Amino acid sequence: MSNKDTRIVDIKPLATPNEIAKIYPISDELSQQITESRRIVENILNGTDHRLLAVVGPCSIHDPDAALDYSDRLKALSDMISDQFYVVMRVYFEKPRTTVGWKGLILDPDMDGSYDIEKGLKTARSLLIEIAKKGLALGCEVLDPIIPQYIDELMSWSSIGARTTESQTHRTLASGLSVPVGFKNSTSGELTNAINAIKSAAAPASFIGINKDGQTVVLSTKGNNAGHLILRGGDKAPNYYEDDVEVAKKKLYDAGINPAIIIDCSHGNSRKNFSRQKRVLRNVLDQVLWGEKAIRGFMLESNIFEGNQPICGDKSTLKYGVSVTDACIGWDETERILVHGAQLLKKAERYGGVMEVL
Ligand SMILES: O=C[C@H](O)[C@H](O)COP(=O)(O)O
Ligand SMILES: C=C(OP(=O)(O)O)C(=O)O
Fold first, then answer.
1. Residue minimizing CA distance to atom 7 of ligand 1
2. N or C, fewer C-beta in 10 Å, the chain?
3. Which residues form the DAHP synthetase I/KDSA domain (predicted)?
4. Whole-number CA gyration radius for the chain
5. How much distance in Å is there from the Cα of 326 to the middle of ligand 1?
6. 162 lines ligand 2 (CB under 6 A)
7. Where would I find the H helices in 135-233?
8. What residues form DSSP beta bridges with 237?
9. Which atom of ligand 1 is least distant from the CA of 325?
10. Please, where are the H alpha helices in the chain?
11. Cα–Cα distance measured from residue 344 to residue 84, given in angstroms and rounded to the nearest whole number
């Protein structure tokens, strides 16, 4: 009796990145647009572009039609506020779960445990192309180490989540990504893992992966010098306040890293209460208005309609435009707080970009 793969119940072949890219190719023009949006994101993170990065969008994408509808609204809004905020749409297809739960559109597009991953990859790639064609920059959480080979050319920003920031696999993966990578602090609220991750990902690495033809290869990377910290709050307390930012800045400086911080207005910072996101944003903008330069952006979990809903097996019964993972703010509120935030920052330009620091 064989003792190989004793817990594997099925092995299926999967189309290679090149095969899927052939069905959903990207034009030179789109590729150029994405290169330019990556440059803008990098400039915001390194402080040469004064705007704030606004990573805004659903907690997770489960309905491509709703995602397109959302992206139309976001594109119009992003044009209105582009002098203060550079908007990157959260197009999150992979969900890291605390224990069990739906793991996102790529792994389980039918949301019924059938794990039609090839369908998920195709849906994700074609949706990213459709949204990018509208002129929006896109950001994804990178969780599975193989998936970037299928979609990474479409991203302008990415993040490594709180549950994976400490993982060497994710740090080396980040070292080879073509986009700036934000590392979230740990779910406990602890910052050291994310700071170590920024250092680790900046170094060249070699690891096992696949190439675009699906062959197992050793990938050797240059290192990613656009790693930055995302403060997402922790189990016990938020960490978006001025004192928290001071602590984070000091830790980054002590580690030899130039502070570039994004504040996640959701998760631990909203204590998972979506309606608190606006007060986090208000506080973040207040810090920026009083001269805090290390804050380079913020993240909002937003959808067409507020709240969330459980996944119930039959996806046709789901409410349109409502999150199936963390609760989000709705579109009207998203528009209101972003327009208002941009107006506040604009007003401050009168005083040389910031209010006088007391
Ligand atoms: O952003 C999404 C969730 O917070 C993350 O995936 C964890 O979710 P869970 O605790 O519901 O599994
Ligand atoms: C999973 C996410 O966040 P975190 O890793 O902070 O829990 C997310 O931003 O979707």
1. 97
2. N
3. 40-337
4. 20
5. 7
6. yes
7. 148-151, 168-175, 192-202
8. none
9. 2
10. 17-23, 28-45, 64-80, 117-133, 148-151, 168-175, 192-202, 242-254, 267-270, 277-289, 331-348
11. 10
47 C-alpha vs ligand 2 centroid, how far in Å?
25
CATH number at residue 274: 3.20.20.70
DSSP-derived letter for residue 357 is: P
Q: Name the residue range of residue 78's domain.
A: 17-348
Any atom of ligand 2 within 6 Å of the Cβ of 141? yes
8: in domain: no
Ligand 2 center–CA 60 separation, angstroms: 10
ipTM summary value? 0.97
Q: Is residue 319 part of a domain?
A: yes
355's CB contacts (< 8 A; 6+ apart) are 289, 290, 291, 348
- Whether 89 maps to a domain, the answer reads yes
For the chain, percent of residues with pLDDT exceeding 90:
95
Q: 15: which 2 tokens?
A: 């189309």
Task: Confirm whether 355 is domain-assigned.
Answer: no
Please give the Cα distance from 251 to 50 (Å, whole number): 23
pLDDT tens, position by position, 291-317:
999 999 999 999 999 999 999 878 889
Which pTM was predicted? 0.97
Using CA positions, which residue lies closest to atom 8 of ligand 1?
97
Q: Which residues of the chain have a pLDDT value below 70?
A: 352-358
Instruction: Give me ligand 1 centre to Cα 39, in Å.
Output: 30
**SS3 of the chain: helix, strand, coil, percent, to 5:** 40, 15, 45
CB of 97 shorter than 6 A to ligand 1: yes
Q: Quick one: which ligand is closest to 326's CA?
A: 1
Instruction: Tell me, in angstroms, the distance from the centre of ligand 1 to residue 103's CA.
Output: 9
Q: Which of 95, 164, 328 gets mutated to test ligand 1 (max ligand atoms within 8 A of its CB)?
A: 95
